[in-house]
Amino acid sequence: MSELVGPVEIVGTGLLGTSIGLACRRAGLEVLLSDSSPEHVRTASGLGAGRPRTDDDRPQLVVVAVPPDHLGTVIATALRETDAVVTDVGSVKSGPLSAVAGEPRAHRYVGSHPMAGSERSGPLAGSGSLFDGRPWAITPHTGSDPDAVELVEELVRLCGAVPVWLTPAEHDRAVARTSHVPHLLASLVAARLADGPENHLALSGQGVRDVTRVAAGDPRLYGQIVSANAEAVLALLGEVRTELDRVIDAVGSGDRTALQGMLEQGVAGTQAIPGKHGGPVRPMRSVWVSVPDHPGELARLLADAVASEVNIEDIRIDHDPGRPVGLVELVVEERRAEHLLTSLESRDWVTHR
Amino acid sequence: MSELVGPVEIVGTGLLGTSIGLACRRAGLEVLLSDSSPEHVRTASGLGAGRPRTDDDRPQLVVVAVPPDHLGTVIATALRETDAVVTDVGSVKSGPLSAVAGEPRAHRYVGSHPMAGSERSGPLAGSGSLFDGRPWAITPHTGSDPDAVELVEELVRLCGAVPVWLTPAEHDRAVARTSHVPHLLASLVAARLADGPENHLALSGQGVRDVTRVAAGDPRLYGQIVSANAEAVLALLGEVRTELDRVIDAVGSGDRTALQGMLEQGVAGTQAIPGKHGGPVRPMRSVWVSVPDHPGELARLLADAVASEVNIEDIRIDHDPGRPVGLVELVVEERRAEHLLTSLESRDWVTHR
């Protein structure tokens, strides 16, 4: 059982890096800061997010918070130059993983992704409470050490966020749906406003402001993010295109029933978004699974649990190095527990009912 | 010079009708309520929005606030059965106008459209402050009486809203851009969530909630609205489709420059949305125009001013029945005044510099 005691090194002191530094300092951990911009390190340090890293420092955990294009390189360097567990907070998880997949040290890497941000960027926008109650994906790969996974989970909880376990590939499909495609469509709607006469835009109400808000985000950053997740984004954009053609047909031919049916699908989608954390308490149930205590088995269980499409609210690992089999507790909504059990049993896991 | 003294009759006591009744009562006007549902009238009346209309009542102004499909019929009936000025608050303006265009009484009709609403509906959702600081389009047709236009403007100001003058056809193109197409695209994004695995949706952040919020609106109502504005909506959906294909090409071929260029158009669009009313005061300038005092001339000036694409912040009409020519004052942003003057002069209006 590992415990997060620090030091935590943060590479990249922008909005996310600085916010994580502030949250770790609030919890009393030592935080080491580095950034290609010495000015950003000075600013973040001045805000109380940590101190500049020196060559003698030996971090327990390295958090890589650099722009998407540089993630792979910086993660590989951190694995090579330290003995620390390494995570990153990038918006796409398959790319960085493939950059380190060949490394013998890859077992110390566990990707992650906090669903928090701001239209502002840079260290001055940072806040120790940026992650309060927000989802934060943890995406172990098949070679991740269970101890490394636990350490990253501790970081997530220490920041006040809610862990969401996904495999790297499923994470990328999930954010294509919940973030990248909504961003691109918001941008297409906003672009039509750029073409509009000034007196037409005077009619803009709260609706169009909400729809287009995210489209104000940095085009360079979102260009990197979308490009890094091209496959999953393209699959969904293809669906959107098909549905857009159906809307055009329905409006053009005056088929009110078809149009209303599509609008009803939209209503169903808004209802599918889970309530914000802090809403009414839903009844939970624990599902217990025996896991052979050798490398790769925990990650395999996670991948199979994730494949069941049930949201795992918490994972507790009870592994005693003296025993050949550990017990893993998966906490899920009560109404979904039976489905998870059946799904895991069909994949030959030993469950405890 | 007409003055709004009441009674004001409101046909349709849903969210909008009840809210207008409350605002008029707050200003001390007598308000008469009617609705196909006697229960809605009782509820609105109980909230203080007015009293049930009787056969002996003689309204000065009738406000039609019924669902889009019934606007034309109800407006025509109000013109036929009263001597009042008639306006409506429907989301689309060409349809109702064409329904009354043949009527000899059409000079008493002036369309309008408040840009305010709520995810809730019905009289209980009504509020006398629903329109505070919101844009409210006034859309005179070429046969509208100047006195009727002024009476509707008085209603708009009494409700605390900000008048935006547009022709009916331009209004419809404007709301296709600022409301109907954003709604349809939000609905397409939301529909993809309805298809998504539960554990993927756990990553939903504030961004996707904002993008999809309007898609929760009543599919029957929005089906009516979009169908009533099919031509303008289709023109823009065609543009969106072309741009969506370009996004798919750019992501598919890894053309980062093209993708970034499209995202930059989106940023420009978010910046084109005017600041909310109540923001910093912008310097204004009045443009004075001579208008021959016979029917149709004021509407023709309005149409020409609107065609200049300058947003008209205020119109003041100084017409003395004893004189053959009146003076109309158009108030616009100082930086746009020269453009409006040149535009009107090129259409043979006599301006006073």
Automatic annotation (TrEMBL), chains A, B:
<protein>
    <recommendedName>
        <fullName>Prephenate dehydrogenase</fullName>
        <ecNumber>1.3.1.12</ecNumber>
    </recommendedName>
</protein>
<comment type="pathway">
    <text>Amino-acid biosynthesis; L-tyrosine biosynthesis; (4-hydroxyphenyl)pyruvate from prephenate (NAD(+) route): step 1/1.</text>
</comment>
<dbReference type="GO" id="GO:0004665">
    <property type="term" value="F:prephenate dehydrogenase (NADP+) activity"/>
</dbReference>
<dbReference type="InterPro" id="IPR046825">
    <property type="entry name" value="PDH_C"/>
</dbReference>
<keyword id="KW-0057">Aromatic amino acid biosynthesis</keyword>
<keyword id="KW-0028">Amino-acid biosynthesis</keyword>
<dbReference type="GO" id="GO:0070403">
    <property type="term" value="F:NAD+ binding"/>
</dbReference>
<dbReference type="GO" id="GO:0006571">
    <property type="term" value="P:tyrosine biosynthetic process"/>
</dbReference>
<dbReference type="InterPro" id="IPR036291">
    <property type="entry name" value="NAD(P)-bd_dom_sf"/>
</dbReference>
<dbReference type="InterPro" id="IPR050812">
    <property type="entry name" value="Preph/Arog_dehydrog"/>
</dbReference>
<dbReference type="GO" id="GO:0008977">
    <property type="term" value="F:prephenate dehydrogenase (NAD+) activity"/>
</dbReference>
<dbReference type="Pfam" id="PF20463">
    <property type="entry name" value="PDH_C"/>
</dbReference>
<dbReference type="InterPro" id="IPR003099">
    <property type="entry name" value="Prephen_DH"/>
</dbReference>
<dbReference type="InterPro" id="IPR008927">
    <property type="entry name" value="6-PGluconate_DH-like_C_sf"/>
</dbReference>
<dbReference type="InterPro" id="IPR046826">
    <property type="entry name" value="PDH_N"/>
</dbReference>
<keyword id="KW-0520">NAD</keyword>
<keyword id="KW-0827">Tyrosine biosynthesis</keyword>
<dbReference type="Pfam" id="PF02153">
    <property type="entry name" value="PDH_N"/>
</dbReference>
<comment type="similarity">
    <text>Belongs to the prephenate/arogenate dehydrogenase family.</text>
</comment>
<dbReference type="InterPro" id="IPR002912">
    <property type="entry name" value="ACT_dom"/>
</dbReference>
<keyword id="KW-0560">Oxidoreductase</keyword>
